[in-house]
Amino acid sequence: MTQAPTPTADTVRRLARSLLQDSGKGGGGKGGGADSAAGPDVRPAAAGAGPATWWVGTRHVLRLAPDREASVRRRRELRLRDLVRPHVPVALPSAVAHGEWAPGLFCSLDTRLAGGTGEEHTVSAVGEADLAGLLTGLREVPVRQAETLGVPRVSPRSLEALRRAAAEAAGRLAEADEFDPDRLNQLTPPAAVQLAAQPGTAVLVHHALTGGHLVVSADGRVRGVLGWDAAVVGDPAEDIAGLALAVGAPAAVRAATLAGYGARPCLRGLWLARCDSVLHLAEALTGRTTVPPPVPRARLGRAWEPIMLERVTDFGRADDAR
């Protein structure tokens, strides 16, 4: 595979100016958020985000695909956002212009959505209703149309296999005094079987509902959702799990319940998140990931927040609605 070049601020500025001119917005003035005739002000969107993602002025974000596989996903994402947008109550970025930033490598200049992230702001009760609308809308997106765009269909994960892996990781965390492995005993092997994904429930799944992909205003409303290139057709519990890691288990389950999901998919999502959180922290502590330990620690804490539903649900009689 050809090594992608590393873009500098100067090369990104020239690329952004060209894309803005191609879009008819020009390279200066208010439309591009420029600070000089040389082109718009550019900077990495976040620590560690560059050189893949750059703020361009105050109104745009430039995303550079690092390889050809990512280029395919990013091209598909532009079409998928147009398909999803009418079904959800939150904003999605719009592409102002797109092209190639290196031979065979896709780039898109998107509108910047106003607001902070789910890591910076706590989602309010009204924000939970926004998330419920998101989950409802994803269920309404025609699956066949999504697949026609190239969105892959993936099989549900085995919760029992994930439970066993998490139990092994929990032992390592216990040695580091990071986690009590007895907490995982709440999910017994029979319960993991009861919480298997049900046939015929596949929907469009965002599959990357991290705090960084939620655009949240200071009042706790969820104003937008980013990061649609990871979308799949599959298990809706994966998005419930993502929300549990991002905004906490109680808020995630309340949002899913408002969206019409019953006890089984909610509890499945909860335990997917809890097992994932244990595995992710173990990987961070052993250096198997570049994510610093405080991030998975925070996600583990959110996923393991207690919820009333797990206290009152009989796994054998769990509501299978949706």
What this model shows, in words?
This protein is an alpha+beta fold and about 325 residues long. The chain contains 12 helices and 12 strands. Strands 3-4-5-7-6 form a 5-stranded antiparallel sheet, sandwiched between helices. Strand 3 and strand 4 form a beta hairpin. Helix 4 crosses helix 9 and helix 8 crosses helix 10. It is globular and about 60 Å long. The N and C termini lie far apart (about 45 Å).
Question: How is the topology of this model organized?
Answer:
Elements: H1 9-23, H2 29-32, E1 34-36, E2 39-40, E3 42-44, E4 53-56, E5 60-64, H3 68-84, E6 95-102, E7 105-111, E8 116-117, H4 125-140, H5 143-148, H6 159-175, H7 189-194, E9 203-205, E10 214-216, E11 222-225, E12 232-234, H8 237-247, H9 249-258, H10 263-285, H11 294-303, H12 308-312
Antiparallel strand pairs: 1-2, 3-4, 4-5, 5-7, 6-7, 8-10, 9-12, 10-11
Task: Sum this structure up briefly.
This protein has helices spanning 9-23, 29-32, 68-84, 125-140, 143-148, 159-175, 189-194, 237-247, 249-258, 263-285, 294-303, 308-312; strands at residues 34-36, 39-40, 42-44, 53-56, 60-64, 95-102, 105-111, 116-117, 203-205, 214-216, 222-225, 232-234.
